[in-house]
Structures are given as C-alpha cells and as structure tokens.
C-alpha cells in the first residue's frame, strides 16, 4: 500500500515563520549573553590586575608627603579598605553606570577624558586600516599570482620592512622628510594652532566635525596633518595584511577547482579574483580585524612622535603618573574594542559564508 505524498498536510507558513523568528531570537539572545559574559570577564581581569600591580593608588592621590591619618582617610574614601569582592562589585556597578573614576593626572572624570582622546585614535587608526586594506590586499593577491617573480620578491621585502622597522623611527623619518624638508604634509598635532577650538566637537573626530560645521579649510588642514601618521600606521597593517593575503591565495591557487577553471579557459583575472579570492574572504576578515584592533591599541609610539592626543598618549601619561583610574579605564576601552571587533567579524562570517549560517 502506498501513501499519496500529495495528500499529506504541508507545514503551515505561520508555523515556519514562528520557528524562524524563535531561532533568530535565540541567536540574538545568545549573542548578547556571550557579549555580556565576555565584558564581565574583561572587567574582572582589569580589576584584579589593578590590585596586584605594585602601584599604590592612594599614594598617587595624597602624595608621598601625606601623613598616615591623611593616607588612611583617603583609603577609606576610595573604598580600598573593604573586602576585595565588595570592591569588585562596586567597580562593576560603577562601570555599567558610566563612572570610571577620576583621573589624578587631569583632574577630570576618566569617562570624559576617554570621550575626548579615543576619537582621535579611532580616526587615525580607521584611516590607517583603510590604507592598509586598500593596498595590502591587492599587493598580496598580486604577489601570490606572480609567485617567484621580481614583483613577488619586492612585495615580500615591503612586508619584511613592515615587521622590522621601528614605528617611532619611521615616524621621525617621515616628519623629517615629508614635513620639515618637502612640506608635503602637516607637522605634529591634529591641526595648525590657529585652527584649534574653532570647531565644536560633535563626534570628537575632527574630519567629520569640520565637515558638519561646513569648515572646509579646517577639514583640509586636518587631512594635511593626519595623512602622515595614518600612512605610517597603514604601512604596518599593509605589511601584515599583504603577507597573510599572499599565504591564503597561494593555498587556494594550488587547489583543483582553480586548475579546472584554468583548463576550461576561464580568464586569469576571473580565476584569481573570483575563484581563488572568494574563499579567503572569511579568514581575511580575521586578519583585518586583528590588525585594526592592533592599530587602535598599539599606536602609542606614533601618537608620541606626532603629538597626537589619542588614547595611547593618554594611557602612557597615566602609567607614568601611577593614575590607576585612567589606566584601568583605558584598558577597559581597548579590551571592549577587541570584543566588538571580534563580534563584528563573527557577523561578517555569517554574511560571507553560507555554511556558517
């Protein structure tokens, strides 16, 4: 006896849509829970590191000439006399309420300082990674496509220089050549001194704020100043991205489906950019994300050389002054950036790779 398949009831469209909506809700809920737990772990790490390093935050506030009574009073006021678990709970509550404490170095709230300094780093690092991706990916693909040629060797030398040359030395050479001698770019700082304070901060990024204010002269002056430090950062990210792109492409170009495409007479550019390049987009996202995060947190030397008022410069000053609130706040922001970039990479995986869905 056979069963007529056409007589079986088909799933109701409403049930299918409901299950799909529940799956999406569960995925979003899992994403948010993972994000929360990761951030909570970051809070725990920053808090306990701040308690074990050999820096006395009380002494940084009261000074080394304070009496014992003044020291004890400041310790109680800062809540450092309480048990460690109570201090951690208070720290977590304060962070989620936006209170990162007060900076000893600047006398302002750390949250206010970070809102001023981080956009400058974000602006420079973003332009740097755009330069690195725009040049690094094509160079890596070209080096793989022409493996063993003089062009491949030249690109590999560029990558080696990016790994070997100290950032501060390259920044100083760039200033001496392109600013002091050729006058092609602006000097240290974000703007010429007579432009300071003329644009009201909205986003904290001078390129965007100057355009929003309609100050085209200030915009081009900001471009004139940012292009050299961003290019130096872009060079280091370019070296890493080009090297990894070349490695990924060499692996794909040796695959059978690429050989099959060539045998069928598919144009070489189509073989390279469609058949070989498409599969490496997912791992390349990881490379670009890590490089971007590295520029955001590792631009201390560049910010020092170019007198760039970013978070790296702020963190260095805080460390030298034993300003633990500023150190922990900066570390927390940098860690949060890593978390966000990783989560964005996960989302892009699902967009670019159907198997991840």
UniProtKB/TrEMBL annotation:
Question: What is the topology of this protein in the membrane according to its UniProt annotation?
Answer: Multi-pass membrane protein
- Gene Ontology, cellular component aspect: plasma membrane
Membrane-spanning parts: 25-49, 124-145, 157-180, 222-242, 282-302, 322-341
Upper classification of the organism: Bacteria, Pseudomonadati, Pseudomonadota, Alphaproteobacteria, Hyphomicrobiales
**Which protein, by its recorded name, is this?**
Peptide ABC transporter permease
Identify the Pfam families for this entry.
BPD_transp_1, BPD_transp_1_N
Q: What is its main location?
A: membrane
**Which species is the source of this protein?**
Devosia soli
Domain ABC transmembrane type-1, residue spans: 118-349
């Amino acid at each position: 006896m056979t069963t007529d398949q056409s007589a079986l009831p088909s799933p109701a469209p409403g049930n299918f849509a409901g299950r799909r909506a529940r799956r999406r809700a569960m995925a979003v809920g899992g994403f948010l829970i993972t994000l929360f737990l990761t951030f909570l772990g970051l809070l725990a790490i920053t808090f306990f590191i701040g308690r074990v390093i050999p820096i006395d935050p009380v002494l940084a506030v009261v000074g080394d000439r304070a009496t014992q009574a003044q020291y004890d009073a400041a310790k109680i006021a800062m809540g450092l006399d309480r048990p460690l678990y109570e201090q951690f709970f208070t720290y977590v509550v304060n962070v989620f309420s936006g209170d990162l404490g007060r900076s000893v170095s600047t006398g302002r709230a750390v949250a206010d300082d970070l809102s001023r300094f981080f956009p400058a780093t974000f602006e420079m690092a973003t332009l740097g990674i755009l330069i690195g991706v725009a040049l690094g990916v094509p160079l890596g693909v070209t080096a793989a496509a022409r493996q063993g040629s003089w062009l491949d060797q030249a690109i590999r030398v560029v990558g080696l220089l990016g790994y070997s040359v100290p950032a501060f030395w390259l920044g100083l050479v760039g200033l001496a050549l392109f600013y002091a001698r050729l006058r092609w770019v602006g000097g240290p700082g974000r703007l010429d001194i007579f432009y300071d304070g003329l644009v009201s901060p909205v986003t904290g990024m001078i390129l965007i704020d100057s355009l929003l204010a309609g100050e085209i002269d200030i915009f081009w002056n900001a471009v004139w100043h940012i292009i050299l430090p961003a290019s130096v950062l872009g060079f280091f990210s370019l070296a890493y991205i080009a090297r990894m792109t070349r490695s990924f492409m060499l692996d794909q170009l040796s695959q059978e489906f690429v050989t099959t495409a060539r045998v069928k007479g598919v144009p070489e550019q189509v073989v390279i950019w469609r058949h070989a390049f498409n599969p490496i987009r997912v791992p390349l996202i990881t490379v670009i994300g890590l490089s971007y995060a590295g520029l955001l947190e590792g631009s201390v030397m560049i910010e020092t050389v170019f007198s760039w008022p970013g978070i790296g410069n702020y963190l260095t000053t805080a460390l030298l002054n034993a300003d633990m609130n500023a150190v922990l706040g900066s570390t927390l922001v940098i860690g949060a950036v890593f978390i966000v970039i990783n989560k964005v990479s996960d989302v892009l995986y699902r967009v670019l790779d159907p198997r991840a869905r």
